[in-house]
UniProtKB/TrEMBL annotation:
GO terms for biological process: carbohydrate metabolic process. It comes from Saccharicrinis fermentans DSM 9555 = JCM 21142. InterPro entries: 6-hairpin_glycosidase_sf (IPR008928), Glycogen_debranch_N (IPR024742). Residues 20-240 form the Glycogen debranching enzyme bacterial and archaeal type N-terminal domain. This is Putative glycogen debranching enzyme.
Length: 275
């Protein structure tokens, strides 16, 4: 049984859910943090935030988030959420969340029509690496996952904007891509646990806002870079794992189907809810 759980009514109400945050840390000095529905409210939030030796170990947000979309019958449902000007949230993926529970690994359950998708995030204990596991619990038709990484590559004390200095070229690696946007930051490898198609659609998503920074009187808008998206078919009962790391991984090394094996292989240093 989970020691803490949130039901649908508390999750879809942004006036409540945006003020509850998750923080995960590890022994490498990295962390992963956001609101419980995945909408960042601070510039310190990110999916993979790592200390960088070239900057006196100052932590940098490398991967801001990964948007997952469910595709069935040529209809796409984006499960992500971000805030823009005038309290406009797009996409509005929080409305599909049905449950969030916490054991050692936090798990969100999304329901879109007849599809039920489980999403679990693990920060690897001694590596600058985060794993996100997507498991299709129910899906009565052909189902495709589209996974879109949002990259920040900046200090936790700063914000980034679209610029000509960013190197947006990527290299193909095993089941994924690697990209090094700035020479002083590490090369980032994003890989899946199975073969997939990467579709290059490079773009900057501009004007993303963090309202808690605005309330503190700090700069609160930034632009995030998206190199494209991964597209992969997923069957009922199947799991697809995404790895984001400062090192290229052997994708077979994170093909773990059971939560028990996932916990054993990738122990979490801490998981904390901040109210």
């Amino acid at each position: 049984m989970s020691y803490l759980a949130f039901e649908k009514s508390k999750l879809i109400n942004l006036e409540q859910s945006l003020f509850k945050e998750i923080l995960r840390t590890n022994r490498a000095g990295s962390y992963s943090s956001s609101s419980i529905v995945g909408c960042h409210t601070r510039k310190y939030h990110g999916l993979l935030v790592c200390p960088i030796p070239a900057f006196d170990m100052t932590r940098h947000v490398l991967v801001s988030s990964i948007d997952a979309s469910i595709v069935q019958h040529e209809k796409e449902f984006n499960l992500g959420i971000r805030k823009y000007h005038a309290s406009h949230y797009e996409p509005k993926g929080h409305k599909y969340i049905r449950e969030l529970d916490f054991d050692i690994i936090p798990r969100k359950l999304y329901r879109v029509g007849g599809v039920i998708l489980s999403v679990e995030e693990v920060l690897v204990a001694k590596e600058e690496q985060v794993l996100v596991r997507y498991t299709l619990l129910e899906g009565h038709s052909k189902t495709t996952l589209k996974l879109k990484p949002f990259l920040a590559n900046r200090s936790v004390h700063e914000l980034t904007c679209q610029n000509l200095h960013a190197n947006t070229k990527y290299q193909k690696i095993q089941n994924g891509i690697s990209i090094q946007m700035y020479p002083t930051l590490p090369r980032l490898s994003i890989q899946l646990s199975k073969e997939n198609e990467f579709v290059a659609v490079p773009d900057w998503f501009r004007g993303i806002e963090y309202f808690k920074e605005e309330k503190r009187g700090y700069d609160f808008k930034e632009d995030l870079y998206v190199p494209g998206y991964f597209e992969v078919e997923i069957k009922t009962g199947e799991s697809v794992i995404v790895s984001a790391s400062t090192k290229e991984q052997k994708s077979g090394g994170f093909k773990l189907n059971s939560t028990k094996k996932l916990k054993a292989a990738y122990p979490v240093m801490a998981c904390t809810i901040i109210f």
